Amino acid sequence: WIVLVMFLAGPRLGCRMLKDPHAGNGGVAADATPILLIGAGPEAEYFIRKPSHNYRIVGMVTARAERVGQVIQGVEVLGRNEDLVKVVAGLEAKGLRPQKLIMVGRNVAGATVQKLLALAADIGAPLERVRTDDGNNLKPQPIAIEDILGRPQSNLDRAAMAAMIRWQRILVTGAGGSIGAELVRQISAAGPAHLTLLD
Question: Quick check: pTM over 0.85?
Fold first, then answer.
């Protein structure tokens, strides 16, 4: 039975290791960028198995508590999204500090993206999101405004908006938040007579 197992499993394992550089522990280049994945669903598994990126995946966090502790394709789910700062500190203590945080989920709410951006700023690592390009390759890219809004960006008539604001008294509520602060910057550039911020 030992010889039978060797002949049945050996060729399959060898073929898989040739096709999938993440199978076993091989295939990761020495200069690969260490990253932490945010999300532990099918998209994460697909990204881990994809041989076209030069990343060393040091762990994952997830929004689902029941996935914590699971190992997906040799990568452990280390904690929940809100534990991100603590998880990165633990990895840093092991000499595995990630240089990037990469979201791999499809339907992530804008509010969740905002929270993750704030946590990424606390950690000092950029947050990116995996998108599929024309060649069906997974490419991490910087967070876009659509990710925060949770919908496609609207094209606005900026000239008409500036004319409406110019020489008017403007009150901005929620001015201390990220969206409110950006509104204040854009409104002040349009030359209002008076600008009041409320939060």
Answer: no
